[in-house]
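Hello Y.,

Per our agreement to keep a running log of every chain we model this quarter, I'm adding this entry. I've kept the format consistent with earlier entries: sequence first, then predicted structure.
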Amino acid sequence: TVFAIFVLLGKFFASGAFNIVHIFTAELYPTSIRTTMIGSCSTIARIGGIAAPWVAVYLPDQGSFGRDVPLFIFGLSSVLGGLMALLLPETLGFSLPNTFQDVEDMEKNGKSMWTCVDPRQAGVEKDSDVEIVVDQ
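Predicted structure for the entry above:
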């Protein structure tokens, strides 16, 4: 039963990551290439989905790798993807970019990814029950 719980949690987080890719991709690219980039990211995600059973089932059966190698591949790629996501600009408070100049402005004037954790870093001040957003 513990194994089934971990399998279901893995499927839950994988589908959540897939949905986040769609949302974040739409927020990062300008209007002129937005749909193309969403399609490209979706295609790359589908290639990963196609390769996953091969890595999990057939790679250990080749005999030259141990049974734990697929776990290391999946774990390392997940951690690497999560760390790389921290390098992406925060899109909170920005409208969707229409031009490449808007994307450059978002990156130049962007906030840290950690502003979601501590809103005071984003220039948001608390005043009793009302939030006042201060332009930086």
